[in-house]
Amino acid sequence: MYDVSTRKRALTLVAQGRSLNSVSRETGISRAAIRSWQHRLEPLPRMASPAPGPPADESAYAYLLGLYLGDGCISAHPRGGYHLRIACSDAWPGLMQLCREAIRDVRPGIGVYTLQKQGYAMVTSYYRHWLHLFPQHGPGKKHERRIVLEPWQQEIVDAHPWAFVRGLIHSDGCRITNWTTRMAGGERKRYEYPRYFFTNVSDDIRRLYTDTLDALGVEWTHCTRHGNRYNISVARKASVALMDTHVGPKH
C-alpha cells in the first residue's frame, strides 16, 4: 500500500511526460501500480492543470521532436489549446506522410490535417497539451533563445537516437552527391561521393545534433557559411554508410 503523497508524486512525474520506466526506477514503484493509479475511478489529489502522460510511441516522438526543432512551431488556439505545425516541402511527399504518422503515433486519436501553402504544406494538429510535450516552445525565433531538452526528453533521445537524427535531417538536412576530379594514369577523372548536411542557425540545436552523432559514432565536421559555422557535414565513408542505413535521403 502507498500513501496519497507517494501516489501523487509518481503521477506528477508521469504528468510531466516521464516514461513509466523512468518513474518506476526513480520511485521504486512498479509500473503496474503506477498504471493502475492512472486509470482508477476514485478521485486522486487534483492538479491545477492536468497534463498528459508520456508519448504513446517514444520512437515516433524522437522523430517528431527532430522535425519540430527544425521546421516546427506551436501556436495558441483562441478557445484554448494549441496547434502544432510542421512545415514540409511539396518536394518530399513521403516526409509529409511520415510527419502525419508520427503525430498520430505520439497521440493516437487526435486529428491531423494539412494546410497547403505556396511550395510547402503545414502538417497541423490541435491538442490541448502540445506545450507539455514540446516545452522548448517560447516567444521569438528558436535561435534567439536557449534550447535545452528536459531530462525525460533526453531519455527518449538516448533510447531512440536514430529517430531523432532522422527528424533533424528531414527538417533541416539533406543528402547530396559531391564530386571532384583527380589525375589517374595521366587522365583527369571525375569522382562522386555522397555526404549529409545539416544546417541550423541555433547553436543549441546544432549541438543536440552533433552530441547525438557523437553517441552514435558518426564522424562530422563544421562547414562555414558566410563565415558562420551553420553547416554540419558528414562525409566519411563509414559514417555516410551508417546514415544511409538509418536515415537515408528524403523522398
Q: What would you note in describing this structure?
A:
The protein has 251 residues and is an alpha+beta fold. The chain folds into 3 domains: 1-54; 58-145, Homing endonucleases (Endonuclease I-creI); 170-246, Endonuclease I-creI, CATH 3.10.28.10. It is built from 10 helices and 8 strands. It has a 4-stranded antiparallel sheet with strand order 1-2-4-3. Helix 4 crosses helix 5 (93-106) and helix 4 runs parallel beside helix 8 (161-172). The N and C termini lie far apart (53 Å).
Describe this protein with a few key phrases:
25% strand; 251 residues; 10 helices; single chain; 3 domains; Endonuclease I-creI; 4-stranded antiparallel β-sheet
Topology:
Blueprint: H1 4-15, H2 20-27, H3 31-38, H4 58-71, E1 72-76, E2 82-89, H5 93-106, E3 113-116, E4 120-127, H6 130-133, H7 151-159, H8 161-172, E5 173-184, E6 187-199, H9 203-216, E7 221-225, E8 228-234, H10 237-246
Antiparallel strand pairs: 1-2, 2-4, 3-4, 5-6, 6-8, 7-8
Helix pairs in contact: 4-5, 4-7, 4-8, 7-8, 8-9
